């Protein structure tokens, strides 16, 4: 009985103590569906958990061995078997069905007018790329990766010319945002807790996730009363020694502010023009690596 009481108190304490960390304020449209499902599931299994734990400890106390007491022989009851099989089966099926419905809504195709952002995990940081004014990400391939071109963008692809790699992610409030997720080395995982967004970054297997942010960073700062508040992208897959350092700031702007920010960004290739010389291509459009600037100039 002591176990039941102490265990119950610790259980309740762990809930209340970590409440704020576990329940970050919500800032996305689909997050409301996730939260609803989470809380329905939590309440259902919470009630069952509490009842079964109380019975488990209480019965083992009540029916403990006594010399003058014999156990009642009660081998089988079909009705009871059916009841305790059917009820959990139906409840589980309903929860699974609701989860599947919600998940297929969340992972439906992103709207055409989504803001597209590429996020690439590497040991140990995030690399982020925007498609620029043309709205098209240039082609990328691991074979193009070098110390400067960390995302392996093909700079002979015209679509790459206006791609930019900012130090912070900016997204507009109320507009759909599509994250195209890749990894360069091991499995990482994109986690944006305020948006209820989590998706693995898997080498060789691009993944994606789209969402609609519903609160700007400024709104969240006044809601939380914390003027320093920032949305954070964290890696949520233990990926090596520097895993803890994989932190990236995400800013939700009003749409006008977002447009201003976009206009102020300059293409990656403008900041690193030396990459162009590496990407002088032959007729088959194959990259000739490590060409000097002089060689390229003479060829041109
Ligand atoms: Cu990681």
TrEMBL record:
Keyword list, A-Z: Copper, Electron transport, Membrane, Metal-binding, Respiratory chain, Translocase, Transmembrane, Transmembrane helix, Transport
Entry membrane topology: Multi-pass membrane protein
Regions crossing the membrane: 37-61, 82-100
Domain Cytochrome oxidase subunit II copper A binding stretches: 112-264
Catalytic activity: 4 Fe(II)-[cytochrome c] + O2 + 8 H(+)(in) = 4 Fe(III)-[cytochrome c] + 2 H2O + 4 H(+)(out)
Domain of life: Bacteria
SUPFAM superfamilies membership: Cupredoxins (SSF49503), Cytochrome c oxidase subunit II-like, transmembrane region (SSF81464)
Tagged with keyword Transmembrane: yes
InterPro entries: CcO_II (IPR045187), CcO_II-like_C (IPR002429), Cupredoxin (IPR008972), Cyt_c_oxidase_su2_TM_dom (IPR011759), Cyt_c_oxidase_su2_TM_sf (IPR036257)
Record localization: Cell membrane; Membrane
Entry keyword Lyase: no
Details of cofactor binding: Binds a copper A center.
Protein family (similarity comment): Belongs to the cytochrome c oxidase subunit 2 family.
Protein name (record): Cytochrome c oxidase subunit 2
Organism: Pontibacter aquaedesilientis
